[in-house]
Amino acid sequence: MNLRAAVRDHTLGTATALSAVALALVFAAALRVVPADALPRAPAAVVDAIPHVNAAVSVVAFVLIVLGVRAIHEGNVEGHRKRMGSAFGLFAVFLVGYLYRVALIGPTEFPRTGLIETVYFAILGIHITLAVVCVPLLFYTLLLAWSHPVSEIPSTNHRKVGKVAAPLWATSFALGVVVYLMVYVLG
């Protein structure tokens, strides 16, 4: 049995396992389980640039998700596949940069207090919650698309789960940009 067939036969289990690993890495970085000294240290300019690069990555990923949804509504399966796959690739780039920076220096603190801080933490909380919820939904929908021929995808849960995953994913990216703007522009 090849890998694609194995994933097709065990899509939910594979998505669950990948989600558990991905979320464990996120929480390990956020909780600084791995000592920063154990990681290779990039130059300070690279570490400092990560939030700015991730904001740009988030904007492009948001646009790709919107265009991917539009493509499938127009019946453009190949355009949908390319855009959503590219958005997932950007999500991986974002996540690697974010995890690396957080593991090295910890989460960025919000520099303001009062009502703006309350608004910031509310937006950040929603962003983080959506990001965590999206991980298993994304793995599941992408694995369904990857492991099935296009002709079989309508008989899977891809469309049903994708209708939930895409707007949550886009909203998470958009809120991530708002968080960035609040920290680096308003802060």
From TrEMBL:
Query: What is the name attached to this protein's record?
Result: Putative membrane protein
Q: Name one GO cellular component term.
A: membrane
Instruction: Enumerate the UniProt keywords alphabetically.
Output: Membrane, Transmembrane, Transmembrane helix
Care to name a GO molecular-function term for this sequence?
A: cytochrome-c oxidase activity
Per the UniProt entry, what are the Gene Ontology biological process annotations, in alphabetical order? respiratory electron transport chain
Q: Where are the transmembrane segments?
A: 52-72, 84-100, 120-143, 164-186
Q: Which InterPro entries match?
A: Cyt_c_oxidase_su3_a-hlx, DUF420
The scientific name of the source species is Halolamina pelagica
Q: Which Pfam families does its entry note?
A: DUF420 (PF04238)
